[in-house]
Amino acid sequence: MASLSRRHWLKMLLAASGGVVAWKGLELAMNSPLTAQGPQTNVNAGKLGQAHAELGNWVYLTPQKLGGGTHCCDMGTGKTLAWISYWNYGDTCPISHHLAAYPSTDPYKGFEFVNSTQGGDNVMIYGLPTQIKSRGILDRYGQGNNIYRVVFDGQSMNLIENIAETTGLGMGVHTVIYPDAGGFAGADGQKDICGFFDRPSLKEKSKVLMAFRADWVPNNKTELERTWFDGGALRLSRLSPAAETGKYDYEGTRGNKIDWEMVPMAESLVYRGLLPGDSPRSLVGLDAVVHHPGNRYSALVLRMPAAALIVDRTTWEPVCCLHTPEGSPGNLPVRKVSSSPDTWEIRFDDCKCVAHEAGFSPDGKSFTMMNNITQNNMPVFDTSDPDPRKWRKTSTFVKDPLWKGEFPSPFHLCFSMDGSKMFVSVLHPKPGNSACVAVDTRSWKIIKKFENIGPDCQTMAVTYDGKYVLQIFSGFQRLSSGVFIFTQDTLEPVGYLPNFGGHHDCVIVPRENRELLNSRCTTL
User: Fold this and answer.
1) What span, in angstroms and rounded, lies between the C-alpha atoms of 228 and 329?
2) How distant, in Å, are the alpha carbons of 74, 112, 203, 433, 472 from that of 469?
3) What fold, for 6-516?
4) Where are the domains of the chain?
5) Per-residue pLDDT tens digits for 209-223
């Protein structure tokens, strides 16, 4: 930024392209540039004024969660290109949750994305004085767990398939594209199921390549609070569709173990008996899948035992289990215990903490996951070996002395295009403003903090030219929301964009498969 001329900055200020609210300290930034080298530096992101910056021609896709739809924004002009509302298609409680976009050579002319939605009692956890449940709106068509397949045709968004209805696999959390763009994986932490899907042509329906269910068998069967801490067995079972219908039986709320989702740090509500349901003791919190860039292996993210179960997508069998807590073994063996149905088991001596979001570096050499509540750190796994059974947890953990207890805690992550930095959102409790930190991936030390960004910082997206990072914040669905932007290379704060509707996730539509490695494919 320091190298840019004042004339160029004035041009950017007057151009108003992208509508970004920029740093009041612009003059200071030109005279004293911040860099990614040296000791950690902090920025109070809340002290910002208004200016404009050129972001580039990117299509930014964001779900509205309680707004019930999704929209895409042209970052080059600041205009919304198109939006869709799932209410209009008969979904009476569409909580537009997470999404992922397939690559498009020209996203402005068209692209395809998959969008999970929640529903049911998940709408009741935000303190809304609503009559939606008493009026029956959450019955059948308001139960959620739909997976919408949507196409933008250059003018409008068009719903072409409800994959949950087609297959019977209803899931409401993360959707994650394969590195070869040949399909996607979805998961649901209320049901502890995940599914792997193909990518059909626009006129065909989706097919399930494989589906699994995970269950916890505790050592301690009497004390709920010790159900996971005292260890046990994780069992992964292969699911099969009904012979009569060719469909699975997991639509809507079918298969829910708990009545509503585990929001961040809500694992403690489960083991304290404060999150009801049909089977909380068997919960593992399988609410995401991420893919290794090599395109053969996928990691099933398991929140309650703090683990990532590695599945080989060429054989559809688990090969090992990465255990993330500090002080625990890093790579646990998998044993097949049944063939009817196929079932595998992993033994845990204990579970020292819970864990949440996870991801691989774009070169596939590192993996990390968020240890939370009783530990607050990010383990660094060496995943460079072709055999996942040789992946190892190193002695390095990303830490911050301020990460304690439930909050503040590391949350979502992504990497810079060159892989030299990892960006981590840091969640603070409602109504406080959350933060984002930059980590040097050579030392795995925090080198920059952007504090006081906004309430409920969620996922991040990076522009594929290596210039910017977009940190979305959703305001816990009732407070302020927007996008905070900073530079990938020099870690300079740029400013804010407005974002309407309590957005909960974000992706920049990739233009080629290579860009998927820095999109909703390898990280959450």
Assistant:
1) 16
2) 16, 23, 36, 18, 10
3) Methylamine Dehydrogenase; Chain H (2.130.10)
4) 6-516
5) 999 999 999 999 999
